[in-house]
Structure formats: C-alpha cells, structure tokens
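Margin note from the TA: students keep mixing up input and output lines. Inputs are the sequences; the output is the structure of the whole complex. Example:
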Amino acid sequence: MGGDRRSFLTRFVVAGGALIGAGLAGLVGLVAAPKKSRAGGAWRTAIQPGNTPSSFPYTAVLTERHEDGWYQTTRQTVVFIDQQGGELTAMSATCTHLGCHVRWEAGADHFKCPCHGGVYDRAGNVVSGPPPRPLEKIPVRRNPQTSAIEVEV
Amino acid sequence: MKGPIDRLADWLDDRLGHRAILHTLLDEKLPPGTAWAFTLGSVLLFALTVQIITGVTLGLFYAPTPDHAWDSVRYISTQVTGGAFLRGLHHWGSTVIVVAAILHLARVVLFGSYKKPREANWIVGLLLLQVILAFGLTGYLLPWDQRAYWATTVTISIAKLTPVAGDFLAALMRGGAEIGALTLTRWYAVHVLVLPALLVGLTIAHLYLMRRHHISGPVTPKAGTSESFFPHQAARDLTMAIIVGTLLAVLAWKVAPTLEAPADPTSSSYIPRPEWYFLGLFQLLKYFPGKLEVIGALVVPGAVMTLLALLPWLDRGPSRRWKDRPIVLSAFAGGLAAAVALTVMGALDKPASAVTDGQWSLQETGGALMIANDQRCARCHSETSSVAGPIVAGAIRKSDNWIASHIADPEVIAPGVRRPPQTNEQANKAMLAAITRLRLGPAPAVAEADATAITLVTRECLTCHTIDGAGGKGGPVLRNIASKYDLEKLQRRISDPTQFKADTEMPIFGDTLYTEEIEAIAKWLIKK
C-alpha cells in the first residue's frame, strides 16, 4: 500500500512539474519567437518628375517611415537607377558579399565595394573580388500618371 | 541487468555525485502532521520563479527610456504574440506573491515558528518581504504611463518626509533634478539587477536556515511516522502550485493589466492611486494631515515592521500553543484586521474618475471626424506617408500640451519655440477633446449623412452656441430647433441672420459656407 502511494505521488510530482515547466517554456518560446520579415515591397518614388539626373547611373536615396517593433523611425534605402538606350534599370546598392554599400566610380566605370574590394560592372555583374552574385535587380517603372521614376522596395 | 538509462545515471553519479545532492535536497524527514499549512513557502517559490521567467521574457522587449518605455510596453501588449498574457502573468504574479507572503507570514506567527532557534530565519523572511514590496514599487514605474509617473511622484514625496536624510533619499531615488530619464533607468536597474540578486541570495539563506533548523511542524508535536519531503510534501506543494498557477493564468487571461495614457508631467487632472497592496498605507496618510504626515507615512509602518522584527524576543516562552500566547496572537490579528480594513477603505474611497467615459460628446465626435477627414491631419498622418504614421486610437503618446500646440500649428514639433498662427479655435479645441478620448479607444461610427453636419456644427456653431451642454455662451442655447423653424426657414436663418434680426452678431454664413453645407447643418439641427 505505502509503496503504491509513494510511486503514485512520485509520478504525480514528476509529471506535474514537467507539465508546468513545459507550459512556461512554451509561453516563453511563443513570445520570444522572432518576428517574420516584412511583406513584399511597395512602389516608391526614386526620382521626382522633372528631376532627371544629369548623369547615370544615378544614386537614389529613398527615405521611408519604418516601424521597427515599437520604434518608429525612418529608414534609408540606396538604389542605383540607370538609363541606357531609353531602358530603365534599378539595382540595390547592397554588396552581395557581406552587405556593405557599393559606390559608383565614374572614372573607372564600375561599382566598387569599400569593405573588401568587390568590383561590379555597370550592369551589376561581378568583375573581381569576393562577391558571390551580381547586385540585386530591383523592379523599376515610370509612373504613367506622374512620370516619376519609381522602384519597388 | 541494468538498462542503458540506469547505466548512464550511474556513470554520471560517479562523476557528479548528484544522487547525494538529491538525497540531501529531497529526502528530509518532516515532522508528523506537516501538511497543507506548510505549502505556502513553496507557493511563494513557485510564484517567484514564474515572475523571474516572465520578467526576463518581458525584458526582451522593454526599453527603459521615457521616449520609448510606454511604446515598448504597448507593443508587448498589442503586437507580440502572447504578449498581453505574459504581461498579465507578471502583473498578477506580483499580487499573488504579496498575498502568499502575507499568508506565509501569518502562518509562521500562528504556529509560533519564529521562536528559538529560528529567529534568524524570521528576520531573513521579513527582509524578503521588503524585497517583494520593493519589486512592486519599482515595477510599476516601468510602463511610464500616468499611473506610473504619478504614483512614483507620491512615493518620492513620502521618502522626502524622512527626518534628516529625507531630501537626500528623495534625490537618490530621483537620480536627477526631476522624475525623468534618470529616475527610470535607476528604478529599472534596481528592479532587474539589484532586487533579483537580493531575492535569490535571501531565498537561498531562507531555505538553508529552514533546513538547518528543520520545519517547525504542528504546534503540538504529533505522534506517528515522519514522511520524507519527496514525494509526500512535494505532492502537496505541487497541488498548490497548480491551483495558484491556474488562478494566475485565468487572471492574466481575463483581466489584462491596464496601460494608461503616457506619463504627462504637465497633466493637472490626473488623480494617482497606488497598487492595491499599498492602498492601506495610502489610506493611513489621510488621517495624518500637515506636519503629522510623517507619522502615517513612516512612523506607523516603521513601528509595525520593528515590532514584527522583535517578535521572537517579545514572545520568548517555549510554548507554541495558541492558548499560551493570547497577547501576541490577538495583537497580530488586530494588526492584520486593521491593515485589511485600511486597504478596503482605501479601495472604496475612490475619487470621481478624471477620465471621461460613456457617450462621445458632440464636440468630441466632431473633433474625431475632423481628424479622420480633414486634409490638415490626413496629409501627413497616413499609412503611406513618410512623415508621420496614422493616428491610432489608444496609441497616442504625446502630452495634451504638445498636441494642443501641434494642432494649432502642425509644423511645430518643438512647441513653444514660436507663436502658432491663428486657426479656428473651436476646431482645435474639438480635435484636442477628441484626442483625449482617442487615447482610450476608437471613435464611434457616425452615419455619413451626419458627418459633414457634425464637423461643421463643431467648427462653426459651437463658438457661440451651446449644444448638448457644450459650446460657447455668446449666443442662445440651441435646442428644440424643430419647434421654431422648418428646414427652409432655418437655412435662411443661417445663410443670412440679418434678415431676421438687423443688429445680430451672428456671421452671415452664406458668405463662407456652401449652400449644401448650410443645408446639412440645418437638416441635422432640425433632426436633433
């Protein structure tokens, strides 16, 4: 009899304790789980109508309101807008190696990354250095109503 | 033949010696008759563990700065999956701990467990009670809402009453010249670094001393065989933990902790009230006006704590039986009853709420419509704007003064720097009134047919006329319009008041409003 009671209570304490622990761990996991990354982009104005740049590729800095959890801030995105033979293209300025911002070097006619020396040609293809992929292409359009140049970021 | 798990356990035990530790921790023989009354300490241990786990998890989101504390708490409550429940657990956990601590203390007094040789543990227990109350006090500043700010103002003012060192203590608690960023970081550090360290240290000391002198057991030793802690008492402890944990979860689920409007040091209408477990002290203060205040604020609570601390030396007899300790027990019961009575009286003595509730007034509704539809607001406050986010009910964190300046001159983001331009005062007042309501919740829906009229009436008519108890005193109160005018006549009355009264001060609205607008106003006034 005594042994039965003892083993029942032992199982009760172990199982109950494990259940409470699992419940708390589950709650912590639920709350602490990282937020999913944001949904797809929206069309944003890169060049205002009538502000056609004097030379291409043009470095456009887009400022947008950004919600970073509870923190309201503005975020800047750098994109390159190019126009060759009437065709618009847009590329991200983020180096595909480790995420630094590349710069257009007009004299050398290429993009260069200041961090580890990655070099891309005007179309964004890797010329030399560590980058594994070409610069990311971004959808671009001329807004039919306003004729502003917009990118989807 | 042993299984692989047993062999692994043997291997580990050779290296760690964990079986001896578990034996020491779990197999203590308890005096016969140790039962449910002795589970309260474990309830506290359980609730404190929950508090540490939920507190650390809240810490993943919380930002201890005046600019962001409120936002981050609101974010936890409204955006984080399970965040409202988590915050509820931490909030109600403090209540559970205070109740369990008082019951535990009462059990120790009733059973005379503080008597020789357990005096030291009694003192450690009282220190733990102070730590628990300090956790509560520092914890509710952290959301940085009105309640947080003003309750802390009161706490620091009370500290100032301390003889000789009062000003120094208050300055130490404030950190800076005023309650602000330096106060918040200070209280935060105490809440999450200093107090937890004290709590863990004192709890270990408490448990060590309990084991050193053993559980006191029933008042009169009972015959019978003694049980070991595990699994017999542990099962009772766990049962209590399940009951308390369920209660806590239901409270956290059903009764969300409030988050009031953000702290506004310029607010003059806010009436602060403390957390319920300080309501007794709050009530006590009311009986000691003026210079006597220090008696209610510090002398009485200090005397009570001193008496409690001296209890093992005041009640020295070896007997723990109730009939041998009538004075101590009746004094304790009297003190406890007084504390409960003060708390209940404090809870009942509620000032008229400064926060408006119930129906939205005409002015508030009109203001909300202007905010929602007026291009002045919507131009910048929208989902797609790069300047400012949409105005969301319940998420407005600027002070009333800031908003008043901002409405008058939206480009002013540093109010007071330059004078705002002249704008329609009634419209601004209405928008400010609406913002105050929007802090608490969304505006009621208004039929589209009424929206234009309400907006215009709020902006134009209320300057001089009172409608539904609000508005100017320059013109007559507008009510029962339908008994004096039909629609056509009323429209003419608004368009050109001079037709009706040559020396009227009422503007000729036909000059400034469209015919359709006047028609909308007239229709709405007649319908009222």
